[in-house]
Amino acid sequence: MAGLAAPPVLHAQGVGEGRAVLVTGASSGIGLRMTEVLAQNGFHVYAGARSAEDLARLDEMDNVQSVRLDVNVLEEIDAAVQFVEEQGRGLHGLINNAGVAVIGPLIEMTEEDMAFQMDVNVFGPYRVTKAFAPMLMESRGRVMTTGSISGILSGPFLGAYSMSKHAVEAFTDALAAEMAFFDVAVSVVEPGNYNSQIGATLVQRMRDGGYDPDDSRFPEQMRRYMERMTQY
Predict the structure, then answer these.
(1) Which domains does the chain have, with CATH numbers?
(2) Interatomic CA distance for residues 162 and 101, integer angstroms
(3) pTM of the predicted model, to two decimals?
């Protein structure tokens, strides 16, 4: 039921006519590709990223303005709202794309890792959507959140990530029903496997944190799973 009556982001003619769209997590993977496609189709893209290097790289693209935006930092979200308002273009679309993945057996996962997973993937879209809702209501725009096939199906060692993406499905359903009163369309996309670098990033984070599969009750399975995740 997620994404009731939500039209695609691009116009039928593929022309954005300068309309402004904010993309969070625009520095790599799906977010970067969406930024490129939107900009190439005439949209003005506010591309959210965190590092100075990524922000500078995004600013080199036509029709793109970088915005420092960590979806976990309220001060940066408020500053992003102020920045977009000051540009005078309004905001016609919001793409909640920033996300992370945490893997591991649920019976071994720390509360810190679980909280990190939910903070970015669930509270991130909630925070950003809430902050930009007045602008989207004014433009009768649309909200799209990047979900996952894991928001419908789950499996071993991906429980925390699947939980977060299931929450995105519920977030989208409720938000779509509420924002329909203001003619704002809401949708979720549910990609399958995609080389977005999210897997390689999470494995590197685990290694940097000293994670050792041999310490798990599932050593062989976790070792193979981590190797597999480096492909995504």
Answers:
(1) 20-194 (3.40.50.720)
(2) 9
(3) 0.88
